[in-house]
Amino acid sequence: MASHDDQDDLKPSLTPGYKPTAVKTTEEYAKMDAEDESLARWKASLGIVPGVNAGDTSLPKVTVLTLELVSPTLPPGKKLAFDILDTARLADTKKNPIIIKEGVEYNVRITFKVNHSIISGVRYIQIVKRAGLKVDKLEQMLGSYGPHPQGEAYAKNFDPEESPSGVLARSGSYNVRSRVVDDDGEVYADWEWSFKLAKEW
To answer: Sheet harboring 187-198: ordered strands across?
Structure first.
């Protein structure tokens, strides 16, 4: 169960002056400012085209598919990715944490599908704890997207970071709470996983 502090940490940072607007359908967005040619091209690049089916509205707006740790130091053929929908694998990381090499540059990559509607101001928030104490917080903007015309997934690479190093950093495991949420506070995904730092991948 998340503590009250966790819930506050997992809320997106407020954007000054941002006020949520009324929710519109993809068709309504497609018809807005239809005479603006450059805006129409931009909307088409997001899959917002008049008369195109917006997708299955029984699904959530966003389905988060995978979380991956990418590093140029990973051995050839090694991939650190897991399926967010595979709850058994996520739960297994508590007993068998993912191994991350100490002192290397890496970045987080997330893949997701937009099922219908337009999403905006979507962020990935990650709280890292060790022995119950918060040691790091990452908040990265995914951006704004419409349903992909071919139903394909989007991938977002976040800014590179460096993993901690040293004997103290390598002792014990780290517990992570990840969330994908928008500026309006709508949560699209919320999961937990664990990792350990080691001298090698």
So the answer is: 98-101, 187-198, 173-181, 119-130, 133-145
